[in-house]
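User: Good morning. I'm curious how adenosine-5'-triphosphate would be positioned relative to this chain. Could you predict the structure with it bound?
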Amino acid sequence: MLTQAPRGTTDIFGDYMTAWQMLEGTMRGLCKDFSFNEIRTPIFEHTELFSRGVGETTDIVQKEMYTFMDKGDRSISLKPEGTAGVVRAYLERNLYADTQPTKLFYLTPTFRYEKPQAGRMRQFHQFGVELFGSDHATADAEVIALAAQMLERLNIKNVELNINSLGGPECREKYNALLKVFLTNNKDGLCSTCKDRLEKNPLRILDCKNESCNTIIQDAPLMLDHLGDDCKAHFEELLALLDAMEIKYSVNPWIVRGLDYYTKTVFEFISKEIGAQGTVCGGGRYNGLIEECGGSPTPAVGFGAGIERLLMTIEASNGKIQYEKSVDLYIGTMGAAATRKAASLVNTLRKNNINAEMDLIGRSVKAQMKYANKIGARYSIILGENELSENKGLLKNMQDSEQIEISLDEIINFMSSKKNI
Ligand code: ATP
Ligand code: MG
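Assistant: Good morning! Here's the predicted structure, ligand included:
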C-alpha cells in the first residue's frame, strides 16, 4: 500500500510531464487568441451543486462521484467535471454583471469512481471552456472552432467532429413523449439500465452501447426530425458557420452526451485511433443550467476535453512524443577552487536565462563528461587549476566536438549569443 498509488491514479513526471506542459502551453496560447480567461475553482464543492448541475439521473452522480462527509457534517464531493464549479463561480462572483459574453477556460483535475482501463481513470484532468451570455449560433461556432484549433495545434489527426441538436425544452418535451412511446413498445429488447432510463431519462437510451439496445435505437424517432423552428434555425446557422470556417463535421443524430443539462447543440470529437474510449472532447449548449443552479436564465455553451485522452491520441497518431533536452552548458570541475568558480559561473548564467549545470555529486572528470552527454548538454567546458590561473579554457560544442579557446569572462556573452540558435 505504502508504495502503490490508489487504483486509477498515476504520477506525472519525466517525458510525460514534458508532454503535459507542452499541451498546457498550447491550451493557454489558444485561449489567449480566443480571449478566454482562466478560472480555477476548488477541487471540491457541496455535493448538491453536482447533483443539480450535472443531473441526478446521470451515471456520474448516481455511481461515479467521490462523496464524503467532512468534519462539519457537510456532504462534499470531489469535482467530477469542470462546468458546475465554473457556473457556481459565475453566479457567486457576479461575473454576469461584467460586459457579456463571459469567456472562461479551466485546466483541472477531475475525479470519477469508474473501473480503471485504457483511457479511463479515477483521477484524470480536463481542459474546458465556457461561454456565458449568448444564445447565438456564433457562440456555439466559436467554441467548436476553439476545439478544432486545439486539435490542429496539437497536430491530432483522424478525429471526427460529430454534431447534433437536442432541441430546447419545448421541442424536447414533445419529442421525449414520442421517444417514450417508441421505446415502451420495444421495451423487451432493452438492457436493464435502459429499462430504468425509460422512466427517468429516455434520451440517454440513444447513447447506450449495448448491442440489443443499439439495434432498437436505429429505428427510433430522432430529435433532429422534430426540432421546433427556433432550434432548427439555430442548428442550420451553426452548420453554415462551420462551413464558412471550413470546419468539417458529420451530423450524428444519436449523439446525446452523458450530462442532463444540454439544450440545442451537442458535439463530440471522436478519435478513431485510441479504441473504445474514443471521445477526446465533448460539449454543447446548456441554456438551462445556470437557472438550475440558482441564477437567472442565462444561455451558455462550452466543452470539456480529457487531457490524458488527448495525450493518448497524440501518441497514437504521431508516435512517441520526443523532447529536446534544454541544457545549454555543462561546466566540468577538478578541485575545490574550480568548483567555486563553476558555482559562480553557473549562477550568473542562470540569471541570464541560460541553462547551465555542474557536478553536484563528486564524479570524476571522465564521469562528468559522460553525464554531460547523457543530459544532452549543447556545450561543455572543464575547469581545473590551469584554466583558473590562465582565466581561459576550451569550450566544446557537443554536437560537432569542435573546441574553441575562450576567456572565462567571455562565457556568459558567448552563451547568450548562442541561445535559441
Ligand atoms: P465516456 O463516454 O468516455 O465515459 P463521458 O461522457 O463520461 O465520456 P464527459 O463527462 O463528457 O465524458 O467528460 C469529458 C471528457 O473527459 C471525455 O470526453 C473524456 O475525454 C474525458 N474523460 C471522461 N471520463 C474519463 C475518465 N474516467 N478517465 C479519463 N478521461 C475521462
Ligand atoms: Mg463516462
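The first strand starts at residue 37 and ends at 38. The two ends are 48 Å apart (CA to CA).
Let me know if you'd like a different ligand tried.
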